[in-house]
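Z., the sequence and structure:
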Amino acid sequence: MSKISFVNGNYLFNHKARISINDRSFHFSDAVYEVIPVFNYKLIFWKEHYNRLRKSINHLNINYYDGEKILKFKCNQIIEKNNM
């Protein structure tokens, strides 16, 4: 289990991670949850997971501005920080 998360633009220990009451999941009851397995510090089936994530985000009309490269970079940072 990881001990560091990326929340609101910051890498935080899980016990300090908080989601704002203004998060749209509280107001609209919508969210997208995608799990990407990691093996030997590598994201498994990245492209398939990313494409499904984009499709889900588009169906909910959620504005997501970071591109694939930035999201993959953030995922790799989480892998590194959690020694996965």
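The longest strand covers residues 4-7. The helical segments are 24-28, 46-59, 68-81.

Let me know what you think.
H.
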